[in-house]
Write a structure and sequence with these properties.
Number of strands: 9
Mean pLDDT: 90
Low-confidence stretches: none
CATH class: Mainly Beta
Order of helices and strands: HHEHEEEEEEEE
CATH topology: Porin
Strand content: over 45%
Number of domains: 1
Structural class: alpha+beta
Number of helices: 3
Helix content: 10-25%
Strand order of the largest sheet: 1-2-3-4-5-7-8-9
Length: about 180
């Protein structure tokens, strides 16, 4: 089952990376938007420090033997650059390295975007949803970069943020809520 899931993910990513004409529209426009947003991040940015702190394995999809052996404290660190646009939407480029569920080194380089709702006199409180897309490298894949798009949620106060991405999966594999703190300098 694991191999079939990997083949499926690779096939979907390969399909999505096919060239599309401008008439095809959605993916072509999204690609243009992504390139422009990354240019904006590079030109106007803050520096961010990332600290992964929790990897919750969904108890509904894991048996006790797996839960006992998995690491749920993925301590590590990361750095990035990010910006907020005029609508308080956050986007960033980042890199993290941390201990995975099996206590091996895992890295992730990605782009993230989060649409925020704000509160407070100066919009210092925020909560939002979004996505992250990037490449991960793991021990069980011989550290070959693997694409990994994930949903993202977050809450923040001023420059401090808690964000989490959910890694979908199958029985005893995937289904992990990965939480990290992000501090904006």
């Amino acid at each position: 089952m694991k191999l079939n899931l990997k083949i499926f993910v690779v096939a979907v990513v390969a399909f999505l990376m096919q060239p599309y004409s401008t008439e095809a529209g959605i993916l072509s426009e999204w690609g243009k938007f992504l390139i422009e947003d990354i240019k904006d991040i590079r030109c106007q940015h803050r520096y961010d420090l990332y600290v992964p702190f929790y990897a919750w394995h969904n108890r509904l999809t894991y048996d006790r033997q797996h839960i006992k052996k998995y690491n749920e404290n993925p301590w590590g660190a990361g750095f990035g650059i990010s910006r907020y646009n005029s609508k308080n939407t956050w986007s960033g480029l980042y890199f993290m390295a941390f201990k995975d569920s099996n206590n091996y080194l895992e890295t992730y380089f990605g782009y993230a975007r989060q649409w925020n709702w704000t509160a407070g006199e100066y919009n210092e409180w925020r909560a939002g949803i979004g996505y992250t897309i990037g490449l991960t490298q793991r021990h069980e894949y011989a550290y070959i970069p693997v694409p990994l798009p994930l949903p993202l949620v977050g809450v923040g106060y001023r420059r401090f943020n808690i964000q989490a991405a959910y890694v979908p999966g199958v029985k005893n594999d995937g289904n992990v809520l990965f939480a990290f703190a992000r501090y904006e300098f």
